[in-house]
Design a protein that fits this description.
- By secondary structure, the chain is of the alpha/beta class.
- The protein has 2 domains: 64-174 and 328-394, 3-Layer(aba) Sandwich (D-Maltodextrin-Binding Protein, domain 2); 178-324 and 404-444, Periplasmic binding protein-like II (D-Maltodextrin-Binding Protein, domain 2), CATH 3.40.190.10.
- 44% of the residues lie in helices and 13% in strands.
- It has 16 helices and 10 strands.
- Strands 1, 2, 3, 4, 5, 9 and 10 form a 7-stranded mixed sheet that branches.
- Helix 7 (225-234) packs across helix 8 and helix 15 (405-421) runs antiparallel to helix 16 (427-444).
- The chain starts with 27 loop residues before the first helix and ends with a helix.
Length: 447
Amino acid sequence: MTHTPAGLSHVSGSTNLSSCRFPFTPSAPQRTLHATRLTWLRALFITIFTLLILAGCAPSDDRVRIRIWHEKRAAERDLFEDAIAEYNRSHAGIVVETLYRETEELRNLYVVAAVGGRGPDLIYSPADNAGVFDLTDVVMPLDSLFTPAFFDGFMDAGLVRYENRTMMISDQVRTFLAFVHNRKLLPEAPQTIDQWIAALQAATIDIDGDGTPDQYGMTWNYREPFFFIPFLSCFGGWVMDEAGNPTLDTPETVRAIKFVIDLRDKYHVIPGESDYEMAEALFQEGRAASIINGPWAFAGYGNAGVDYGIAPLPQHHETGNWCAPMVATSGYAVNSNVPADKLPHIRELIEFLTSAEMQERMIHEIESIPVREELRDLPAVKNSERLQSMIRQIEVGRPMPVEPQMRQIWDGMRGPYQLVMNGAVSPEEGARMMQQEVKKRIADTFL
């Protein structure tokens, strides 16, 4: 039996092979397609080869890259980015890259990244993160990175220490609350609680007589625990004891909560509903005569055309306590994963960002509160009514705890406190719930 190769018909010896059509013999269209493919492949090969040659000839980028994650906003961020651009231009071998993140996202993503051996080289954040950073071992102590002479240039508030180690170096006192008033609607800031309430009532106006104020005496984000703290301290309460245990289920907490509710339901000087954005809009649009807010927002009021003044929050005429906000700096911490050969570059950058020159520039451009003693005596500070008012507010404020329990306190307070504001539970029950929730959260995180 004769076997025929696949695809080839059996032909006899007398068959004219030249007349046979072999399956593997291309037709004219097929030959054209084949030629096109070859041309395309040659072009692709030449392109790839050329790119490889060019890549081999291109100079390698061996500059040191330093990444910073931060939460600077608005005008402060613009100043920061300008300063970083200037630093890059003056340091040919360095590239500093910045990334903005919201405060909560910043902390959470940084901790996750750094625990995994990654993340930015530097993080700029509020000082109250120091305890969490230390607990999770994601930042390195800075005492051996800088000289004592460098530290001597800072006020105590400028060096964030936890368990006798320097964890962060600050460039400003940035976290606190103050009383901000529209001078056209509320020319003077009252100094005591009773005067304060009377002034806010006078500034609350129902223009059309429909029973709802068209202008409120005050607005602020009163549903958020951080913005409640000044009234807690005013009535003699606080969030924790020296051992880090929560101290929220107290008569002082109940009195403070009732006072905030009275501002809304008894005196009717604040809106029935409020969050941060709503409060900002009411004040900037002239529909609220005053607001409680922090320095991160002040420049925006001027940009919105508000003629505003800043004053300390009032003093309680009975307890003698000031409505003392928590006060904290913001500063730079170094990722514990930064290699040793990169640390000299990190040190130089921090020295630049926290220098007297940089802090003086921040005074002039964003009215920040410096953490270098000699800068407090500058004419730009001493002759500024707003800066002096902020300094007075800081002086009667209370340092924000840096213990890691502070994170659980904020999160544990929020739910029960907002239930009270919504009328779902009483102030007494809310205080008990806050205490229980915070204790549970602390226990769950092994603190």
